[in-house]
Structures are given as structure tokens and as C-alpha cells.
């Protein structure tokens, strides 16, 4: 913990103006990031990606990042593949090397990937979905500003703040009390601006900065809400947030002052500050990846039990 405090102290002089610009930029484009608060980071179980400028890097588990390709504006991962959105709106995916990438769709503004396949929000705000075994995406909804694919349910948010859900419901994933799946997407929350989901649980960020959670909560990703089993209705778990992320058993939030807060497996059940001057965060299985306003990239491999290590992009 002394090492962590030293890192936080060293970073305390970074400019808050940079964070403000980052948050403003996120509000201008559809923030459809699976388990990450921003376009520049991605994490899903043991697979991770990060942007350095327009260059995408990728790594597995606690390994070191390796350069993948340039010309990228958003990165994403599923359990078995990497994804990259190019500056011209082309969405690509590959499993081994970017040289063998497949073009999934064009005219894309943002995307999300996960267990059921991938979402793409086009430049007109139309949401498209393709399953993992589908060759072509199908149109789902108009006026979409955020989307997320979880392990058991998928979510999206429209311009008026309505949150829609479809998928498994046995762990309370819908957040409206139902425990049976529906055939179509149904609205279960209002005033949402972002949504993240993972293993049987989901969190969303309301316009007022309150983080709401629902679903499975054996390990604390929803803090005290339904702790020990599950919560089948959306409930407040944190406030003052401007960005959120969630992993398989823990969740994170960034406040307007740049402070990063964490709770769940590897951390305390109650949210506790982890680091300062953070502009983006992503969560995988047990990993947490954060970028600070000075551009440094940090990874916690096992929650707060060990200090983070600084990652080198080369």
C-alpha cells in the first residue's frame, strides 16, 4: 500500500483540465465501450488492449503490451478476439494478428464486443448487432448513444436516457424485478448515460452521477446492493461519477476530480479510492487497467493486494 500511496502522490500534480477535456470528448460520441470507461482502453477476462495516440497495443493477462496496428480510434476485445475501429469508420477484428483482420462493418462511430457477438453504433446513431456466428449485422434500434454486451445480457441506451435490456434474467440482469428472459429488448431504467455489464451483473451511470447496479453480487461488484447473492432491481451503489467500468467480479468509477474508486473482489466491498488523476479505466477478470492524465498506463493484476505496475507501450 505504501507503493500505491507514493504513486498517487506523484501523480497529484497532473492537470485536471486534461480530465475535463476527456470527459467532454466522451459525451460527443457514442461511448459504447464494453468493460471500459473510454475508447482508449479495453479489457475482457484476460485479454486487454490500449491506444497510444492512434496506435493499438494488445496483451494477455499480466504480459507486456505489443504493438498491433496504427490508424485506430477505439479498441475492444472479446474473450477470443481483438477489435479496432479505424479513423475512417471501418470496424476490424482478428484473433491472432491484425494482418489477418476481417472487416465487420463500415461507417461505424463506436462499438462493443462480448459473449453474444458485437454491437456497432453507426454515425447516424443506429445500433447494429451481429452474433458470434453471424456473417452480417442486423439493425436493432435508432437514436442509440451507448451499448454494452455482457456475459449473459446485452444493454443499450437511447438519446432520451432510456436503458434497454435483453438476455438471461435469472440473476436479476434486467433490473426491473423479472427473473425470466424476454424475446425482445425491454426498457428497465431512465436517465442513463452509460452502461457496463459482465458476469451476471450490470451497472449504469445516471445523468446525476449516481451509479446504479443490478444482477449477481456474490463477490461485491454491486457493493452492498444484494451482496451475497443477487439484486433483481436497479439500486444505487456510488455517487459523483463521470465514468464507469466493470469486470467479472469488481467495478470502478471515476469522479470529476480524477479520483478512481473501486469495489468488489480484490478490493473492499464499500467503494474506496484507488488512485488519483485518472482519465480512463477498464476491468477484466481480476485485472484493472487505468490511464492517468500524464499518459501513464497502470495495471493491477490482483486488486488492491499488490501495487500496480506501469505498462510500457513499445
Q: List the secondary-structure elements in sequence, H or E.
A: HHEEEEEEEEEEEEEEEEEEEEEEEEEEEE
The order of strands across the largest sheet is: 1-2-3-4
Tell me roughly what share of residues is in helical segments.
under 10%
Give the averaged pLDDT, no decimals. 90
Tell me, briefly, the overall form. Answer: globular
Number of helices: 2
Biggest beta sheet summary = 4 strands, antiparallel
State Rg: 18 Å
Poorly predicted sequence stretches spanning 5 or more consecutive residues: 1-32
- What structural class do you assign from the helix and strand content? mainly beta
Say how many strands there are: 28
Instruction: Indicate the proportion of strand residues.
Output: over 45%
Give the N-terminus to C-terminus distance in angstroms: 28 Å
Give your account of this protein's structure.
The protein is mainly β and 314 residues long. 7% of the residues lie in helices and 47% in strands. The strands form 7 sheets. Strands 1-2-3-4 form a 4-stranded antiparallel β-sheet, with no helix packed on it. The protein has a 4-stranded antiparallel β-sheet with strand order 5-6-7-8, with no helix packed on it. A 4-stranded antiparallel β-sheet has the order 9-10-11-12, with no helix packed on it. The chain is globular, with a radius of gyration of 18 Å. Mean pLDDT is 90; it is low at 1-32.
Amino acid at each position: 500500500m505504501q507503493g500505491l500511496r507514493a504513486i498517487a502522490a506523484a501523480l497529484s500534480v497532473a492537470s485536471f483540465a486534461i480530465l475535463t477535456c476527456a470527459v467532454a470528448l466522451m459525451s460527443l460520441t457514442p461511448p459504447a465501450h464494453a468493460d471500459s470507461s473510454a475508447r482508449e482502453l479495453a479489457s475482457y477476462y484476460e485479454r486487454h488492449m490500449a491506444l497510444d495516440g492512434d496506435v493499438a497495443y494488445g496483451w494477455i493477462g499480466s504480459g507486456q503490451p505489443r504493438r498491433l496496428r496504427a490508424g485506430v480510434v477505439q479498441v475492444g476485445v472479446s474473450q477470443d478476439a481483438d477489435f479496432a475501429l479505424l479513423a475512417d469508420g471501418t470496424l476490424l477484428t482478428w484473433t491472432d494478428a491484425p494482418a489477418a483482420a476481417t472487416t465487420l462493418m463500415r461507417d461505424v462511430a463506436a462499438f462493443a464486443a462480448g459473449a453474444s457477438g458485437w454491437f456497432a453504433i453507426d454515425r447516424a446513431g443506429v445500433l447494429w448487432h451481429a452474433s458470434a456466428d453471424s456473417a452480417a449485422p442486423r439493425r436493432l434500434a435508432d437514436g442509440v448513444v451507448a451499448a454494452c454486451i455482457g456475459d449473459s445480457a446485452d444493454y443499450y441506451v437511447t438519446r432520451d436516457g432510456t436503458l434497454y435490456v435483453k438476455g438471461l434474467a435469472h440473476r436479476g440482469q434486467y433490473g426491473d424485478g423479472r427473473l425470466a428472459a424476454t424475446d425482445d429488448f425491454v426498457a428497465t431504467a431512465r436517465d442513463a448515460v452509460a452502461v457496463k455489464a459482465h458476469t451476471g451483473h450490470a451497472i449504469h451511470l445516471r445523468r446525476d452521477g449516481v451509479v446504479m447496479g443490478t444482477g449477481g453480487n456474490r463477490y461485491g461488484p454491486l457493493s452492498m446492493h444484494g451482496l451475497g447473492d443477487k439484486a433483481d432491481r436497479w439500486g444505487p451503489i456510488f455517487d459523483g461519477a463521470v465514468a464507469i467500468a466493470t469486470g467479472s467480479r469488481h467495478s470502478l468509477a471515476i469522479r470529476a476530480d480524477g479520483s478512481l474508486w473501486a469495489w468488489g473482489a480484490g478490493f473492499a466491498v464499500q467503494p474506496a479510492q484507488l488512485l488519483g488523476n485518472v482519465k480512463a479505466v477498464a476491468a477484466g477478470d481480476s485485472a484493472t487497467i487505468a490511464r492517468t492524465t500524464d499518459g501513464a498506463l497502470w495495471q493491477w493484476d490482483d486488486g488492491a493486494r499488490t501495487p500496480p505496475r506501469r505498462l510500457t507501450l513499445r
